[in-house]
Design a protein that fits this description.
The protein has 13 helices and twelve strands. A five-stranded mixed β-sheet has the order 4-3-5-12-6, with helices on both faces. Strands 10-7-11 form a three-stranded antiparallel β-sheet, with helices on one face. A two-stranded antiparallel ribbon has the order 1-2. β1 and β2 form a beta hairpin. α2 crosses α3 and α2 packs across α5. The termini are far apart. The relative contact order is 0.14.
Length: about 300
């Protein structure tokens, strides 16, 4: 074992990082709650171990040598790895005690609900389910209110602080009661669809945007919403009992159509979207995250193989 391996401690690593953050020995000592002589001795030990002055105090702060900068880089990396190990160990310890928080957008809600919670419960995990917009999911992941989210993963919707794991493709289609004129005709032009009564999401949402652009691209005025809704299963009764059209994810609409009581129609040229898992890069993933992703992936493969 080398002299460095025997003598270097976490105290030395934290001191290097703190010196760089605060730019002075006195402030570093105060931050670490140790005396200045103790800090000075630790600096002498570091210089001896690394055979380099490491830095020089100047009126503008600390001027690091090349070797000092290299030592600082490795110190930060080791401290970061230790923090991740601590977080992973703690989360693994609590994995079956805390509630695994799953978020999903309207695109992913039905598929996630059908595939993920039951599999996690079977493993003895407690689960909480949350629904929101694409923006909500990112915000809640960053706040650590969610452990994982499921929603759009297309390149155009990605953000630098998050990881994306595409699993399947889906798109919105029109749903309505079998008695609705559009469903009886099994088709309609955009102009005819523009004159219908709709359940639509609020303006500013991604779903409304692509819906609106479909009509605007043909120089048609988009229909106004007769009912404003976030487009969930609660809208089914309205669709079934009134002459209203709505948008549902195709995977969910086809399942509801097979069950009876609802018809779906791909009369709008709405694009397919990559749907998958979203994780925040700023924390080590919950031990159940990989299992949740695998459960949804297996479920979609099962449906595709039918």
């Amino acid at each position: 074992m080398s002299d460095l391996s025997r003598r270097l401690t976490l105290r030395h690593l934290r001191l290097l990082a703190t010196l760089d953050d605060l730019g002075g020995v006195t402030r570093a000592a105060q931050s670490l709650h140790v005396t200045q002589p103790a800090v000075s001795k630790a600096i002498r030990d570091l210089r001896d171990m690394l055979a380099d002055p490491l830095f020089e105090a100047t009126p503008d702060g600390l001027a690091w040598t090349a070797a000092g900068r290299t030592a600082l880089q490795y110190a930060r990396a080791m401290l970061r790895n230790l923090q991740e190990l601590e977080e992973h160990t703690e989360r693994a310890r609590l994995g079956k005690q805390e509630r695994f928080a799953i978020g999903s957008t309207r695109y992913a809600e039905a598929m996630v609900s059908a595939a993920v919670p039951a599999g996690l419960l079977h493993q003895g995990l407690k689960v909480s389910l949350h629904r929101g917009t694409h923006e909500n999911m990112h915000a809640e992941l960053a706040l650590k209110s969610l452990d994982i989210a499921f929603g759009r993963c297309d390149a155009g919707h990605r953000r630098a602080d998050f990881e994306y794991h595409p699993i399947y493709q889906d798109r919105f289609v029109i749903v309505g009661a079998p008695s609705h004129p559009v469903m009886r005709a099994r088709g309609a032009t955009l102009a005819e669809l523009a004159s219908q009564a709709w359940i639509l999401p609020p303006r500013g949402t991604f779903t409304y945007h692509i819906f609106e652009q479909t009509f605007l691209s043909e120089n048609l005025t988009p229909p106004e919403a007769s009912v404003l809704s976030t487009l969930g299963l609660s809208d089914l009764r309205l669709v079934e009992s009134h002459q209203l059209l709505a948008l549902f994810p195709e995977s969910e609409a086809l399942r509801l159509q097979q069950a009876g009581g609802l018809q779906c129609l791909a009369a709008l040229p709405l694009p397919y979207q990559q749907i998958g898992a979203i994780l925040w890069r700023g924390r080590s993933p919950h031990p159940a995250a990989t299992l949740a992703i695998d459960l949804l992936r297996r479920h979609t493969r099962h449906l595709a193989g039918r």
